[in-house]
Structure formats: structure tokens, C-alpha cells
Amino acid sequence: MARIPYVEKENASPEIKAIYEQLEKKFGLVPNVIKAMANSPTLLQGFMPFLGAVLGPSAVDPALKELAILTTTKINGCSYCTAHHTAVGQRVGLSKEKIEALPDPNNPVFDEKERAVIRFAKEVTEKVSASEESINELRKYFNDSQIAELNLVVGAFNLLTRFADTFKVELEH
Predict the structure, then answer these.
(1) pLDDT tens, position by position, 110-156
(2) Which of 45, 114, 151, 162 is at 20 to 30 A from 70, Cα to Cα?
(3) Domains in the chain, start-ordered, CATH in brackets?
């Protein structure tokens, strides 16, 4: 059971209802993590555009972005986020084998570019910062804009996993 109530649509402010309607239109449901975040409507309203940018089209290949996200969710032990992003990862072309191998960057199923992304996400999640070596490895494959984006993606999912786990957010039925 969640440690914080989910704000259901009928109890939400007009601003939060508008967010819910957008999510329902796009995904067919409002994720429970968003319903939990709605307990802080001002922060949720500020967070949603950022989350949309993090998850939306970008300069980083969607499969590589999902490798970074899933590395973060698995290291942090967030079953809620891992379940959601396992499905997303498969939709953008990650094999079940690669998803199951995370967060081990040394697994032979990954190529060097994927390993660089996984190592970076692992370091930022476990140590808060990435090593010079990890940044230099990313520079072989990505420009500064893409590296900044990967860091923001990992940071966003460190926030989301901590929020979801702290409040024991449950997977939707």
C-alpha cells in the first residue's frame, strides 16, 4: 500500500485535472507516481514539462536513453519505474536479454557505446558524479549536448525512483 494517497481526478484541482487529461490521452491512464506527486500540485505542474522533455524526442537515441534510465531504476531498486521502463525499452528496440543484463556494463551483450552509457549512468547513480574516464568514454560517441542530456535523464530518474520508492508507489492494474 502506498505511503501517500493518490490524488484521484475527481479530487484534483483544475490544473492537475488538465495534466491528468493529457496523460490519459497519451497513455490511456494516469501513472500512480503522478497521482502521488499531485499531493504537491505546484511542484508537479513545474515537473511535468521537464519530464516531458526528458522522455520526449531528443538528440540521444531512444534505446540508449532507456539503457540509462533502466540502469538507474535497477540500481535504485525501483520495481515500479523498472516495470514501466522495461516496457518502454522493449518498444524502442531493447532486447529482453539487454534489459535483463542491466546494470552490468561488462556483459558481452552490450556494444562499446552502450557500455559507455551504462557506466556513466551507474557512476552518477551510485557516486553522484561521473569520473573523468567515464566522461571521456562518452565523448567518443556523443557531443556535449548529448552528454548533458544523458546526465539530466539519469538525474531525473534518480529523483523519480527515490520518490516512487519512498512512497511505495504501486504498479497500475
Answers:
(1) 999 999 999 999 999 999 999 999 999 999 999 999 999 999 999 99
(2) 45
(3) 9-55 (no CATH), 62-166 (1.20.1290.10)
